[in-house]
Amino acid sequence: MGAIEAPFPSSAWFVELVARATADPAELEHLGIADLRFGVEVLLPDGAEEFFGLVLDGFDINVVGPTTAESFGSDVVVSGPLAAWQDMVDWIEEHGPADSAHSLNGLTIAGIPLVARSDDAMGSDKFYRFMGTIQAVFDAAGAPAPAAARA
Amino acid sequence: MTLGLDLDYLERSARGEFDLGWLRDTGSEWGVRAVPSKTGLTLRDIAIGSYGEVPDHAPLRTMAPRGSDVEPGVPDMGYTINDRAEVWADNVLDLYEEAVSRQWSATRDIPWADLAPLDPDVEHAMCQLATVLSEVEMVAADFPAKWLWRINHDFVEAKMFLCTQVMDEARHTEVFRKRALANGGGLGKATAVVERFLQLILDAESYDEGSALMHLLGEGIVLSLFRAGAALAPSPVEQKIFRLCMQDEARHVAYGTMHLRYRLASDPSVAEDFHAYLDQGEEIISMIFATPEIVEPTAILAAGGLEQACELGTAAGDVLRHQIIGDYLKRCAHAGLDRRGRLHLPDALIDGVPGARVEAAV
What we know:
The structure holds 2 protein chains of 2 kinds.
Chain A: H1 11-21, H2 25-31, E1 34-43, E2 49-58, E3 60-64, H3 69-72, E4 76-81, H4 82-95, H5 104-108, E5 115-117, H6 121-129, H7 131-139, H8 146-150
Parallel strand pairs in A: 1-4
Antiparallel strand pairs in A: 1-2, 2-3, 4-5
Helix pairs in contact in A: 1-7
Chain B: H1 7-14, H2 21-24, H3 92-101, H4 120-137, H5 139-148, H6 156-182, H7 192-202, H8 207-232, H9 236-266, H10 271-288, H11 292-303, H12 306-335, H13 347-350
């Protein structure tokens, strides 16, 4: 299917992810409108962290970052070690859409290996309200690159 | 009843002599132009002019749209909910648009053909959970339907949102019955304790009471069950069912939370009433945590089978309990109702749940 060439996490990786996720607008529109500021916090082995934002606005999806959690202003942040994120991405690249165990929901429900945090109940409920869309975005890591899809 | 048919008008109009009072003498806002936003013409886009002004108290009890010129003598429809705070939520316009946009079909959007045979214990567990969920979901259609006709049309956006909830719940009822019947297991057991909670919602004496019990407490619990179901799903079929239901349920809970917030902001003196409703609801809900027909299927799904369920399933039950109570407390707090220290749940359920108790002052 062609893994995203840019390393995870990087701005280029997220931009390519969104390009794949939005390659078929009809598919995205079938999921419905969304309204979510989704933060991705990757904890690196050296103790540093990388933060990227995905903004779901109607049928548009935009990438913000690298940035910080404070400046992005997330509804919900999913945070965890690089290894956990990488496992999820690798699994999707190899198998396609995430199964329960490799989905954002499955990885966050017990607070390990990833944790979903929000300032208030509306943020966490937005995570649940738009779970299908945000998962579809990450599932696009296993989709063909837009150029390959057109070929 | 006489409708007052104007026979003279019939004759005049037959001669082409139009009245045109509706055209010349109406105090309408000629020239009003709602501008579509990027997803289309939304309820928020048309909330302009006098139509956009939602009164705190409805001046009439008619079906006329806000902003229209209401003829004297329109009948009184007898609505009993005529105060905005009784049904409104600041997010209700957006939730309606979201609901309409994110509808799905239990027939078309679930990959039923991909269902595969499961371990019999897992299939039993899935069917039992599906039975309970199919049983409880329709009350969240019955309750709004019971109150819809009593809500004044000046708050039509809230009515419209509740209509979407009715459709959502019909679909949830449908999809879990389909799941129970589609893979060899069949429907399981319906329990008295679940039905008692449903009865409490349906028999609520006010919309306030029923909404608190249903939107906030009951649907919050079901939302956590959906979330757990999606995480524990034995196949992509169940994963999709639970994920789609979770999205719908979270909308209903978001309405309930923001409705309570609006209600309490409008009249803080009703807080004690809501505490009392939830005291009663929590007492019944606590029994659900000790209902084998709910606890055990969840444990078996979490563990992947009956044999492993005692060990792994209990841990999964703890995760679910923490999430249910933790999320519920967060929603109450966001609404402006602090339930810490007032929970009518036994210590065994509260223990270990962050924020469930009021921390003692140091």
